[in-house]
Design brief:
The protein contains six helices and 27 strands. The chain has 486 residues and is an alpha+beta fold. A hairpin with a 4-residue loop joins strand 9 (207-217) and strand 10.
């Protein structure tokens, strides 16, 4: 009996303790900061730390930050020329996750402020990722004055225990939100670019269309037209051997940072906002890069992708030949370029730009040259819908000429990725007889439910041609939407 009473009392104690824990308020971490000297920064203008504050009026920040389970609340004052402005902050924290050198070393906040200011960025950096000062952990708050549009940056050192508290709190907040790692990464990437919150920020669109075309023949001639776009790009020529070397160096397991001075590459590729590109077909396979930069004042964040492309005839088999257009995604990452040190650091591996709705076309055949089959294949692509792809053909009157590849296309069928589509009629005579004097002059495939966005991904369109002439010349083209997370 005595034993049973002891056990009952023990159970009651445990139950009461458990109830107390469930109802307990989250512990609050408080950070009181005073006399933080601010500086005016402007995207597109590089300013050494302290330089901006000397050229304009002095501004200081006092603020009390309270953080509990990844939610931050702040109350403080900004003193500008002796005038005080109240500043209230509130929002959630997000840690860097995934394949990034900053994972576990950088925490960002998605915070809102009072009507007078917008919080463009709230971040805590450990020493290894602090671009401003290599000693200690840095808290950075960047505000936009809603009246003047000016950007104010406040930075101060905090203790390691403060960073640890914010890191742990952000993990708790993520657990409450139930976010997947990919969702966290996309959120963090958005927060890295201060223009996403600025009223007067850079207006570079998050996606852009591109079209590229050229010619090829069975005698080895291969040309490329000037790239066509419906929106503005900046063409920045690069040495692709050097660009490839830089990417490989950044992927070295012993480093995540290189210096621009060690590469024969233009600074304009890494510095400044906007869409940038280049293409080179002088080698086989050729190279393309697409990049989107977002200038943050002292540094620029760039999301960049480099891929190889190859288009060629595969050789004669009697009167038949095949033309193959292939793409291989080689490098994709988000990098940060320090305007002062010229250091290029990796923010995220494997998060390059995405090529969506990629469609390839080849054709404009003439005389007795016709297509009799086509195959659109791919590996390591990201599936954004079903596994269905769209096939298109240019079935036109025998005597007509094709002046625009895209305008002659008509949808023919939907198939699974990699499924060969065979046309009715294997020669120009058979096609003329079976299609009321029409023949297949063009072939095309659309990766409508697949995104080309992973390193190692590849895709190709194979067009099979019957030639009654023993010589084939054709036009090739592709168009896609390039999408950025910045």
């Amino acid at each position: 009996m005595k034993k049973a009473v002891i056990m009952l009392v023990g159970c009651l104690v445990v139950s009461l303790f458990s109830l107390n824990m469930v109802g307990a308020e989250p512990s609050t971490h408080e950070l009181e900061l005073q006399n933080i000297e601010g500086e005016f920064i402007q995207p597109g203008e590089t300013t050494q730390k302290g330089e901006a504050s000397q050229s304009k009026d002095k501004v200081q920040l006092d603020i009390d930050l309270k953080q509990a389970d990844g939610t931050v609340k702040g109350l403080g004052t900004i003193v500008h020329n002796g005038t005080k402005h109240t500043l209230e902050l509130q929002g959630d924290l997000y840690p860097v996750k995934g394949d990034s050198p900053y994972a576990g070393k950088l925490v960002l906040g998605d915070l809102k402020a009072t009507e007078d200011y917008k919080v463009l960025q709230f971040r805590l950096d450990q020493a290894t990722s602090d671009q401003y000062d290599a000693n200690g952990t840095t808290l950075t708050i960047v505000l936009e004055n809603q009246e003047s549009g000016e950007w104010l940056r406040f930075q101060t050192k905090v203790d390691q225990k403060d960073f640890d508290a914010y890191q742990q709190g952000s993990d708790v907040r993520l657990a409450h939100k139930g976010m997947e790692e990919s969702e966290v990464i996309e959120k963090v990437i958005t927060l890295l670019n201060m223009h996403n919150k600025a009223s007067d920020g850079d207006q570079t669109p998050h996606s852009i269309q591109v079209e590229q075309s050229g010619t090829a023949d069975t005698e080895g001639e291969y040309t490329m037209d000037s790239p066509i776009t419906t929106q503005s790009w900046t063409d920045i020529r690069v040495n692709f051997n050097e660009l490839d070397r830089m990417f490989r160096d950044l992927k070295d397991p012993y480093t995540d940072k290189v210096n621009l001075s060690n590469y024969n590459l233009p600074e304009s590729l890494f510095k400044g906002s906007g869409w940038k590109r280049d293409v080179d077909i002088s080698s086989s396979p050729g190279w393309n890069y697409y990049a989107r930069g977002a200038d943050q004042g002292d540094y620029t964040i760039t999301q960049i992708t480099a891929f190889q492309h190859d288009s060629s005839f595969l050789g004669w088999s009697g009167l038949r030949n095949s033309f193959d257009t292939a793409f291989t995604y080689r490098h994709g990452m988000i990098i940060e370029y320090d305007h002062w040190t010229k250091d290029i650091s990796v923010m995220y591996y494997g998060w390059g730009l995405s090529l969506e709705d990629l469609q390839m076309v080849q054709g404009a055949l003439e005389d007795r040259n016709v297509y009799y089959a086509q195959t659109l294949s791919g590996q390591n692509l990201s599936q954004s819908g079903s596994n269905v792809i769209g096939y298109f053909v240019g079935l036109i009157p025998y005597g007509d000429k094709v002046y625009d590849l895209w305008n002659t296309l008509q949808h023919s069928t939907n198939e699974s990725l990699g499924q060969r589509e065979r046309f009715i009629g294997s020669t120009y005579e058979e096609q003329r007889n079976m299609h009321n004097d029409h023949v297949y002059r063009s072939a095309s495939g659309n990766l409508s439910n697949w995104d080309f966005d992973r390193e190692g991904a590849n895709t190709n369109l194979l067009g099979e041609i019957h030639s009654g002439d023993g010589y084939i010349n054709l036009r090739w083209s592709f168009q896609t939407t390039v999408v950025s997370n910045l």
